[in-house]
Structures are given as structure tokens and as C-alpha cells.
Amino acid sequence: MAKRRVPPPALHAEVAKRRRVKPSSPAPDARVPLLDVPLKGLTEVSMSMEGGRLRVDANVGVRGLGRRRSEGLIPATRLTERDVVDLGEKELEGAVPAGVPTSFVPRKARPTHRLPDGKGTDVDRGGTIFDTDDRYLFDDTSFPWRTTGKVRTEGQWGSGTTIGPRLVLTASHVINWTGGDEGGVSWVTFTPGYFDGSGPWGEIAATHVIYWIQAPGTLSDEQTAFDYAILVMSDRIGDVVGYPGYRTYDERWNDESYWQYIGYPGELASGERPAFQGEGVVSSVGDHSTSGQTGYVMGHFNEFTPGQSGGITWGWWGEELWPRVVGVGSTIGSTAVQTPSGTTTGDNEYGGGPALSALIGWARANFA
Predict the structure, then answer these.
(1) CA distance linking residue 188 with residue 366, whole number of Å
(2) Nearby residues of 150 by Cβ (< 8 Å), 6 or more positions away
(3) What total of structural domains would you count in the chain?
(4) What CATH number is given to the structural domain containing 145?
(5) How far apart, in whole angstroms, are the C-alpha atoms of residue 327 and residue 228?
(6) pTM exceeds 0.85
(7) Which domain does 303 fall in, by range?
(8) 17 to each of 21, 75, 110, 301, how far by Cα in Å?
(9) Would you say 106 and 140 are in contact if contact means Cβ atoms under 8 Å apart?
(10) CA distance 74 to 60
(11) In this predicted model, what pLDDT tens digit does every residue of 42-91 receive, in sequence order?
């Protein structure tokens, strides 16, 4: 059977002109975790509310609270070819939560990112920012911008996005892999809508991690092609904030400004505010295989700096009110990647491809 040819998404310039879509129904109540700390050994806890603030007090003694977030390791599942044999390559839809408007570009934060005088053109900071820096910091809790947030783990952090009712998509190399190839992870959390130290829906703990490879901090092209992981969360946060869909990238979409990218760059507001870039272009695609799956290295010259790893690039199709993810932010200033169209030097790279589709599809099927 011939593979159905999917049309390209709308150009970002067209998407940016779309008017905000009002919600068609009111928002239901939602429960989110505001506080999650270990209570072992505490003898007295009290709560009070005053001036619109909730305060929790406890007698902790000179040793304070226990610093471990959980007992033992979070389990991690490495997928194999057998796990996804019946999945095929699926297109996965997104979900807009009730009572939430959809905006096609996010509202700028005040103040937002500004380049220093004289630094506005022909900027190339070590192969991460090319020509002008077109990112801006945003502060927007409409859909889909509320789906993105900060991922924190032991000793490091990155970006992430909901990709199902209980699922968050991030880069594999953002995870601090401490349990060996068949082990687990000490702790991982996700804060959707993270802005200046907190998010409107609290910080949610992951209970499981699903992946193809445990990617290191410095990646080869083969590792970049599979540099993504799914976090299974303790709460159904995707029902509250919504989630985007997914579509496998097609190299026929190269060299056109379709894409939007979101992440938490460390050099802008110290990673405390999310950044947006539109008019994104994927310049090249390279195929790599592992576990019977094909992953893509998607080379690009869009702005990408540390902290944005794990953030997603997505586009908008037709009249859909959710975008579709095509890649995950991975590497910065790659030295070279061989592609069908030639060699790129010094590009930034997303990971994606059919293997990302299979990972998301398996996670949605098994952790609904």
C-alpha cells in the first residue's frame, strides 16, 4: 500500500495572523499538586490561610526535612522492536482543554528578551545563534503555550511538553540516568507554564520513564536521532493544560518556514522564562536506526542554546486547534551530519522521525 502523502503545515507567517479562538465551553475545576515533600519523621504539621495565601508549617528540628524526593528509583522502560510491532507509524491528535482559548503565537513577557546594542545582526555564538536572534520570552497560559514547561531532575534541568493525559515529552539527555541501562531514575519533575520560579499548576513528579536510548550529554548523530524520552506523570496534568498532537517529519518540508520552537534557554532570564521562536526552518534530515526503528537527525539553523534541550518544534495543519510536534530539541552546533542533500556544518539539531511516533504511541497506549 502506498504511503499517504501528508500536505505540509501552514507557513508560520500565516499562522501568526490567525485570531485567538475562544473556548466553546466553561472550564471545569482541576486538582493540581501545590506541595509534595517527604513527611517522614515529622510530628506536627499545621496549615493556615491568610491574605489569599496557603501556609504549611512543620516542626523539623535541626536536621530539617529529608532531602530525598522519593524512596528508590523511578522505573524506566527501554522499548524494543517487539514492543511497537503493531503500532506502525501513527498520526496522533492533540487535545484542547475545556474553557481555554487557543492562541497561535504566545503573548510576550514584559520585559522580554532584548539583544544588546550592536548585537542584532550576523550573530553566531559558537554555532547556536545565526544571523539575528529572533526569540522572545513569553508569558501566556492560553493553549498550547501552557503545555510547555521546565523539566527538573537530579543536578540538571531542561524543557518539556505534555504529549498525552499523563505524558510529558523531553530529551533523553535531559534525564540524569543513574540506574544503569536496565535501572531507573532517582527523580524527575515537570512544571507546566513555569515562569519565574513556579507554575500555575504546580510541580508534578514523574513515576516512570520510557525511552529508546539513555543519551549522554555529548551526542553522536545516531544518538541525536533517538534523543527523546517520555515521562509518565503522577497526575493527569494533560487533562488540565491540554497537549499537542504529533506527525512524523517529511523531508519534503525542508527549507520552508513552517515551525515554532519553545524552550527555556539558560542565557535568557537564567532559564526562568520560556522563549518562543517562529519562522523555524529544518534544513536537512539524516536517518539512523536502533531497535528496528528509524530516527531522524533534523539539522537546522534556528536559535538554540543550553536549557532549550527537550523543548519541542511543532507546526499547525489546516483548521486544527492544536499544533503537531515533529521534533525534540537535542544538540547545539553539531560539527557535521551526512544527509541525502549533503553535509551541514555547525548546525543545531532536533531528534524525531518514526521512532518518536512509536515512542509516543506506545506510551499513550500503555499509560492512558
Answers:
(1) 20
(2) 157, 158, 159, 160, 190, 191, 194, 199, 264, 271
(3) 1
(4) 2.40.10.120
(5) 9
(6) yes
(7) 12-21+74-366
(8) 12, 44, 22, 24
(9) yes
(10) 26
(11) 768 888 998 888 888 887 777 676 665 556 789 999 998 888 766 656 78
